[in-house]
Write a structure and sequence with these properties.
With 567 residues, this protein is of the alpha+beta class. It contains 15 helices and 14 strands. Helix 7 crosses helix 8, helix 8 packs across helix 11 and helix 12 crosses helix 15.
Length: 567
């Protein structure tokens, strides 16, 4: 049995990052957008009991993996449940022909990876072990992002490996006691990010991102009003010869391969958008304190890199600008992206990511378990077509070359457009690295022409305005009362905007929760985003009330107690 002594229930506040994911789940419930699927192939004699024991040991050590979210007085909290809530699924396909077993295993992986989590139920980790043949297994883990990040996967496999080896030999895992739990970090973060520390860092980001509008990257189709997450990807590869030149140029200019590859991509973005400072998001570990390095949890933060390439600089000069932009961002990385969004309050749009729509990252090869007796371990690809950004470039540094993918929103782009973009990126990187002193515009003729911009898709109807006599309706008065209570600011009229009055995502959830209780009707959170004024929200609520009443009367068995069925 797992040896941890912290297998007890606990209650704690969420970190800022967790809070945003909880809000997004409330905004678009029942979606797998934040699933993190990881699969490995295990060939050789596997001890299934030892594997289950090892996974359970990890779940017991890291409370965040066996947690759930509860809402108390409209505030989300994290509750830790006993370790026995984690029950791996064992599926035996060994009696099937190999081809059929492989096909069914693939279907199970796709199905599990796309199955949403219920954040109100523990655990935040699901595991399925599929026996394909006597000495051939596939292990799939699906973790909700609210409980883990990329670094966490490495921690998980390290501890799993040690615990598996111990279980096979019949001894305790002997893993060192964890100095902290993720809840301790969340508590520290909320206490630390206050006062002067927060204000100074926010001032930097306000200045850096001032005047930043919505995405300027041209799309093939109008942006839908609501983000679907439907995506696809194309492969990217930088051969060994080009990789060597990228590293050599980086050493000359004292920049990392990440900065060199990012600079080339930002030159490409500037070409296609006709804008010199397209903002690009990039993940950073967020583990600025050594105490949190051995923990599993959602620590990763997102930085917005807005490099100014105005004036047609040489690529050497562009590298310097990218380096300075990145170094400055790293120095101000303590502000969680979620707080940045709340403070800067970009234009609300449920059809795109806030502050940036293009993501770029370079990472090492995926982590794997190691030292498992008698087992050969390899990565198993997990088909996963959910995207969170318009465009995301994810490169893997494999030492002698770079590989990766360009993921894109299929609602916005044709595959042929993204295939051209990937080819242009690889070709442009070679040209820029080969002649770094030439102006970046010198290579425009080698690239695909700038795409024409598609206009926005029609937006949902925002409502019909105030009541006919100019006086607030009863529903409008209720909305104004709840806003005043939650925002501590009384709306002056029915045209006041919730977000202009200081509302943000968490407060929006509070408002809709209280209105739902007052009306005894479940009101969806997106209603406030589509109808942000008092009058618009009131009319949206009235439409929901009418729809609920029509539904009740169309099903006599659902009539309220004491109400007679009409002939």
């Amino acid at each position: 049995m797992p040896s941890s002594e912290r297998c007890v229930e606990s209650l704690s506040a969420l970190s800022f990052a967790q809070q945003r994911l909880w809000f997004l789940d409330r905004l678009r419930p029942g979606r797998p957008d934040h699933n993190v699927p990881v699969a490995i192939r295990l060939r050789g004699p596997l001890d299934q009991g030892a594997l289950v024991s090892a996974l359970t040991e990890v779940v017991c050590r890291h409370e965040v993996l066996r947690s759930r979210i509860v809402v108390v007085d409209d505030i989300p909290y994290q509750v830790t449940e006993p370790v026995d809530t984690f029950v791996p699924t064992l599926t035996d396909l060994a009696d099937l022909p190999v081809a059929q077993a492989e096909e069914q295993a693939h279907e199970l992986v796709v199905q599990d990876a796309a199955t949403p989590f219920d954040l109100s139920a523990a655990p935040m980790l699901r595991a399925r072990l599929i026996r394909i043949a006597a000495d051939d297994h596939l292990l799939l883990l699906v973790i909700h992002h609210i409980a883990a990040d990329g670094w966490s996967v490495s921690v998980l496999w390290q501890e799993f490996s040690a615990a598996y080896r111990a279980a096979v030999s019949g001894r305790p895992a002997g893993l060192p006691e964890l100095p902290l739990q993720y809840e301790d970090f969340a508590d520290w973060q909320r206490k630390h990010l206050t006062g002067t520390t927060l204000r100074e860092q926010l001032d930097y980001w306000r200045e850096r991102l001032a005047g930043q509008g919505s995405s300027s990257f041209p799309t093939d189709r109008p942006r839908p009003a609501l983000w679907s997450g439907r995506g696809d990807q194309v492969d990217i590869e930088f051969p060994a010869e080009l990789t060597d030149r990228i590293r050599a140029l980086g050493r000359t200019h004292e920049v990392t391969p990440f900065m060199t590859l990012l600079a080339a991509f930002q030159v490409l973005l500037a070409h296609h958008s006709d804008r010199p400072d397209v903002p690009v998001g990039t993940p950073i570990s967020g583990r600025t304190r050594i105490e949190v390095e051995p923990l599993i949890g959602f620590f990763v933060n997102t930085l917005v890199l807005r490099t100014d390439l105005a004036g047609d600089p040489s690529f050497s000069e562009a590298l310097g600008r990218v380096r300075q932009c990145a170094v400055d961002a790293y120095a101000h990385q303590d502000v969680p992206f979620e707080r940045l969004v709340e403070e800067l309050r970009p234009e609300r749009d449920l059809g795109q990511h806030p502050l940036f729509t293009v993501m770029f990252q370079v990472e090492g090869p995926p982590a794997l378990p190691s030292g498992l007796p008698g087992l050969e371990v390899s990565t198993q690809h997990v088909p996963y077509e959910i995207v969170k950004f318009d465009v995301e470039v994810s490169l893997t540094d494999r030492g002698d070359h770079f590989t990766g993918v360009l993921r894109y929103a299929a609602d916005l782009f044709d595959r042929s457009t993204m295939e051209r973009l990937a080819r242009d990126y690889r070709e442009l990187a070679g040209l820029l690295v080969g002649s770094p002193e030439r102006p970046t515009s010198a290579w425009a003729a080698h690239l695909a022409p700038r795409a024409s911009r598609s206009g926005p898709a029609p937006q949902p109807d925002g409502g019909q305005g105030p009541s006919a006599d100019g006086q607030p309706t009863e529903t409008e008065l209720l909305v104004m009362e709840v806003w005043a209570e939650v925002l501590d600011v009384a709306p002056s009229g029915v045209h006041d905007d919730f977000f202009a009055l200081g509302g943000h995502s968490l407060v929006a959830a509070k408002v809709m929760s209280r209105l739902s209780r007052a009306l005894d009707l479940e009101l969806p959170l997106p209603l406030l985003f589509y109808h942000p004024t008092v009058a618009e929200l009131a009319q949206g609520i009235e439409a929901a009330l009418l729809a609920d009443l029509d539904s009740t009367h169309s099903h006599p068995d659902l009539l309220p107690a004491g109400e007679d069925q009409q002939p």
